[in-house]
Amino acid sequence: MAYKNYEIETVIVQRLEAMEDFLKEFISSLEEPLQTKGLVEVRARIGGTILEWYVKDEQVDEWVKEGQEICLIGTTIVPGGATIKVRSPATGSLHILAGTGAKVRPGMTIATIKTSTLV
Q1: What pTM, to 2 d.p., does this model score?
Q2: Residue pair 99/50 in contact by the 8 Å Cβ criterion
Q3: Most Cβ neighbours (<10 Å): which of 8, 17, 28, 95?
């Protein structure tokens, strides 16, 4: 009986690994079109809440420069809380996907930057 359980566990692990590989490829395929269309993703580096966007109007795309501070994320991961300033990874037109007050996860895309006028 123990041998049969081991076989079942082995099959489950193999299927989970295959699923993980599939999901990695799928996510990669979703990211490629953005890059080819002149879009750069702005990702949260830490989980928390977007406290503020440093733009005039969150509803209107605004021109930003690479390295410019564009938003502030608050987190309670560290004792006493902390804030992280997010800088623009590129120069272009900022389009916000997660507004002020939104809960974000590490790696989550919170905005895109249109770097080309050819899109």
Answers
A1: 0.66
A2: yes
A3: 95
Number of Cβ within a 10 Å radius of residue 86 = 22
Contact 60, 95 (CB under 8 A): no
The residues facing 113 across adjacent strands are 40, 94
What lies within 8 Å, CB to CB, of 102 at 6+ separation is: 49, 50, 110
pLDDT digits 0-9 by tens, 23-78 = 777 676 665 555 556 889 999 988 999 999 998 887 888 999 999 999 999 988 77
Q: How much is the CA Rg of the chain, to the nearest whole Å? A: 20
Average pLDDT over residues 101-113: 93
Distances in Å between the Cα of 57 and the Cα atoms of 43, 61, 68, 94, 95 are: 20, 8, 16, 11, 11
